[in-house]
Amino acid sequence: MKKIVITLALALSIMSVNAQTETKTADNFNKWSVELSGGFNKPQRPLTSNSYYTRTISPYTVDLGVRYMFNNKFGLKADFGYNDLTEQKNSSIPFDSKYYRADLQGIANLGRIMNFETWTKTIGLLGHAGVGIGQLKSDAFKDRDLIGNVMAGLTGQIRLTDRVALTGDFTTILNAYQDHTFDGLSRTNNKGFSGLLFTGTAGLQVYLGKATKHADWVSISDQTDLTPLENKIADLEALVKKTPEKVITEKPVTTTVVSDKDIVKEMINDKYYSVYFDFNKSTPIENSTAAIDVVLTYLRKNPSVSLDIVGHADQVGSAAYNDKLSNARANNVKTILEKAGISSSRLNVVPQGADDSIAKDSEEARRLARRVTFKVK
User: Fold this and answer.
1) According to the model, what pLDDT value does residue 50 have?
2) 13, 79, 275, 329: which could form a disulfide with 65 (CB 3.0–4.6 Å)?
């Protein structure tokens, strides 16, 4: 009886130790970039009525930006823009105005937030919005027209190399305290947000730093720091070495042989060790990755076994999307195991899509459905 208690205590101890493990990420990516783009603009309003018109799109717009990412999802950008505003030929009285601006913007890496890495490694999307100041100049007036602005836009990205990305951007700029029309021939007498300007540009982003990748393209598997995991594995292996291979307990009439390996395998296959995820995410939550420690230790001690990594999603969303999400979750866990030294030939990803057995209307049930489980074979 004592030996059974010892064996079960060991298994529970392993579970307790694993429950305290936390996954940490290392900033092993570049954070700075320089961005240069050029293109066209369309001043929508204000213009002097009747005789003054702009082209549907007017050259030229030039934009220079310097960006810093706090992590792979959010950052800040300082940028400087120049717009040359001219008339529509043969339809408007000629004019030539210049609009200069400087802005500070917040950046959201929508590609990482929406898990683009589940279907592409080369396409990205940034959202940006901020405030700034500008100046409108024209030969038609002598005084300086200082303008405040708010702006927002979307920047599509195509990664050419780890150092360079091609971009296409569309931005809306809303001006306040614009005293003159864009053609410079009239005063607006409006201190509110009366100016509206659209820009469309194409350009390049150049990533700076010593790391291989920039934050724009880093996903969870790239960020995973395996050092704590390796240390925990070493502790678990030391615990397992202290446990006898077989523990025999005597009962009336029969003798039962209990193997610590069988106990762990049974617990893995019975889903005692699962990796959980937040809604619409393929990144494991911090306090759930302890399950990977146990699975990894078992695989190392049993090099002949293979493992099914089974991805699940809740029932929110389309079936096609949930299939992709469950596949992404399972593949991220597979990547962590591969980085820890487990051969990919021993790891089989099984995307199960939405778990229909769990109640869709319960938030707690949906949280439990967003998981990866394991099957030792």
Assistant:
1) 67
2) 79
